[in-house]
Specification:
single chain; about 375 residues; 8-stranded mixed sheet; 5-stranded parallel sheet; 13 helices
Length: about 375
């Protein structure tokens, strides 16, 4: 079985070993061939093959022409290698979904629309996200119509939104995308160097400004792991406010991320909108309690004691309460470890692979 993936993630093409790399590392063993179509990257690398059977096809064209690139290269790949199923990572402004629709019309390939994240849901970081959220509400039913299924990665927030927008319930499939390697993300006997940890992209929708506000209100020692457009601003703010904050930047190795988590007493996840996020599960697997805003998967799996709205004072009070209440701290730590075990990498990947193969088998007769 060959798999075609239409993705907006450029990280593999750029040579980065992030979450998408980890997914493909586990996925490639179960398919004869995987082809990944993605947008243009700044510097074209020579080798666009990995693991022997994974081939990456970044567009040579501007992003505005991405739907045409998907149709162009996808048609050639399907005719040459006989793919019968594709996945389409979809988000506004819907380049991938339009491309998948064009490819479906050209060669008849069936595809699964994957809505990992709706920008602006449940809270928008700015005008652009509010616009994207409204566009998704207006267009997603049309966008999903040719797809054989719509995959979501949390159980309530995104599915409820999509059904309200007109996507039929029977078309939705819940298949989590959080593949936690419990050999890496696990409790370690390390001294606690930090009180609060932030792990994620330094961007407005990740709530990094809110994290700084909580750090300032509590006077605790923090670490902010990650890169992004706001990294310089974060470092400047830390100096201006005299915050006790370490900012190591991008950390590529998962083992190093796990080490930072284990060196922290608490993970504070302050995102405005997310499909996941994975970091709350990774922290939980490390035995590090989480305080998080109610985004994505968080309301599905964490108790009210670990969830707070986007209010710096309320978050600061919750952080102080958990860190000063030993029984509550231990209860959240043990609860988190139990939750993370449900997202063990091989188990969740097996669920995803089974979904893909089921869809492949159900559509293969259409191409006979």
């Amino acid at each position: 079985m060959n798999l075609l993936m239409i993705s907006g993630d450029r990280s593999l093409a750029a040579g980065k070993h992030g979450a998408f790399f980890n997914t493909i590392e586990g996925l490639h063993k179960h398919f004869d061939r995987i082809d990944i179509i993605c947008p243009k990257i700044a510097v074209h690398r020579y080798n666009m093959q990995m693991f022997g059977n994974v081939f990456i096809h970044p567009s040579p064209w501007p992003l505005l022409l991405q739907p045409l690139w998907i149709r162009h290269i996808g048609k050639r790949l399907v005719r040459q290698f006989g793919h019968q199923i594709a996945t389409c990572h979809e988000y506004p402004p819907f380049y991938n979904g339009i491309g998948a629709r064009l490819l479906h019309r050209a060669v008849g390939i069936s595809y699964i629309l994957e809505v990992m994240h709706v920008p602006g849901l449940p809270r928008a970081a700015g005008i652009r996200e509010r616009l994207y959220c409204q566009l998704t509400r207006s267009l997603i039913a049309w966008d999903a119509r040719p797809a054989v299924a719509v995959r979501v990665i949390n159980e309530h927030q995104t599915p409820d939104f999509l059904m309200t927008a007109g996507v039929p319930r029977n078309k939705l499939i819940y298949a989590p995308a959080f593949y936690i390697d419990l050999d890496i993300f696990k409790p370690m006997a390390l001294p606690k160097r930090y009180d609060l940890a932030f792990v994620g992209r330094m961007a407005t929708n990740k709530g990094i400004g809110l994290f700084l506000d909580v750090l300032e209100r509590t006077g605790l020692i923090g670490v902010a792991v990650g890169d992004g457009p706001l990294l310089s601003w974060v470092r400047d703010q830390a100096k201006r406010r005299r915050l006790k904050l370490h900012t190591p930047g991008f950390v590529q190795a998962s083992a190093d991320v796990a080490r930072y988590m284990n060196e922290s007493r608490l993970l504070l996840m302050t995102a405005l909108n997310e499909g996941g996020p994975r970091v709350v599960l990774e922290s939980a697997a490390c035995g590090v309690p989480v305080v998080a805003t109610p985004v994505g998967i968080v309301p599905d799996i964490f108790p009210p004691e670990a969830i707070e709205d986007w209010d710096a004072d309320a978050l600061a009070d919750k952080v102080r309460n958990i860190l000063s209440d030993s029984p509550l701290y231990d209860r959240l730590r043990q609860f988190g470890s139990h939750v993370a075990s449900n997202f063990e990498r091989s188990t969740v990947l097996a669920m995803y692979i089974a979904m893909l193969k089921k869809m492949h088998n159900s559509t293969s007769g259409d191409h006979a």
